[in-house]
Amino acid sequence: MNPELAMKVANAVLYEGYMLYPYRASAIKNRQRWSFGILYPLEYHEVGLGTERSQIHSECLVRMTGDPVLHVQLRFLQLVAREGGEEGVERSFDCELSAGRAAQQMFSFTFAGDAGSRERREVTGMISVAVMELTNQLAKLAVSVTNTSSLAGDAHDRDFALLSSLLSAHTILSITGGEFVSLLDPPEELREHVSACKNVGNFPVLVGAEGERDMMLCSPILLYDYPQVAPESAGDFFDGTEMDEMLTLRVMTLTDEEKDQMRAGDDRVRRLLERTEASAREQLTRTHGTIRQMRPATGEEPIIDLWNPDAPENTPLASVTVFGVELKPGDRVRLWPQKSADIMDMAMKGKVAIIEAIERDYDDQVHLAVVLEDDPGRDLGMLRQPGHRFFFSPEEVEPLALNREVTNER
């Protein structure tokens, strides 16, 4: 069991989206508090409509290897209103039970508020834990967390409801005398049992050191087994899924006035600013170009000179034949993206483009580098600037010399 590794990931989940760049409470996106895993009071209007929830439910499998004892830790943030905004206070509640062949127990928790005050409201909830025997040595574990807080206010007021809510709610499960089964990569013989597990509002993944099976994180954010926080990260940036390097650079661009607003806000945001100002260069050095692992060369790999544009494998092709028409750089084509992988593919459908180069990748696939004819930044594309130069396969372009009958067949 490695609780330190698990807690690092759990803390990242807890504060995901807690405060978004530019880290000012006055910013529009920070006035509308958002977070994964919010459990609202049952009386909140959106819960009744089914668009928000007051409960999360987790199910996973446990192999029994002895006399199992299950420990459940619930963690969440409770919002506290304060001058200039709101602050999240960490809350946790622990419970434990003997997870024999069949067991069920309810646990209630309360975090007191200030009587008659909007600053901190009372938050109450219930944890239900059930163990159901499937085979002689296999059981299904079900854990539910429900917000039972009284709303005592406008049922349509989201900001008021958040003060009685559990934000970023998740559970950490740990067991002795047993081991958890991966829901992402289960043994073949357990796949049917895994497919019957129901998870609502979160998903359990194995956490800790690779190969350990005594801890699970039931996360409102979809993760893989054994997730890790990058060791190069200097600390939380809170800004969901953004890269540390990018955010470090962004914080460095803030004006003195904007930084003063950060300092006047949440303690965690203030520490983020102080950390970045004190060691921005060191942070960028640690995070830039990190290599996770390297594999030894077998001696059979082709030697590719990536740095020499004149190397034969890096030399653009002079021409390519498409539908019997020889195309060269400078020729005009009409684009017909076939994959529609993103909005750009749809936006470029039918557009006229100019071939800038004909290139071949290391899998010997041919790609046409093109620049849109009506792009105001076409000159930048010809200079190979990102955002103005695009790649298409020969099957995705129509030489404008083709007749309309062939075009319609496409």
Explain briefly what this protein structure is.
By secondary structure, the protein is of the alpha+beta class.
Describe this structure as you would to a colleague.
The chain is an alpha+beta fold and 410 residues long. The protein has helices at 3-14, 28-31, 45-49, 158-162, 191-195, 244-252, 256-263, 267-287, 343-348, 378-382, 404-409; strands at residues 55-82, 85-98, 102-111, 123-135, 138-147, 167-180, 203-206, 215-219, 320-322, 325-327, 332-335, 352-360, 366-372, 390-392, 397-399. It folds into two domains: 33-229, no CATH class; 312-409, Roll (SH3 type barrels), CATH 2.30.30. Strands 1, 2, 3, 4, 5, 6, 7 and 8 form an eight-stranded antiparallel beta sheet that branches. Strands 14-13-12-11-15 form a five-stranded antiparallel beta sheet. Strands 9-10 form a two-stranded antiparallel ribbon. Strand 7 and strand 8 form a beta hairpin.
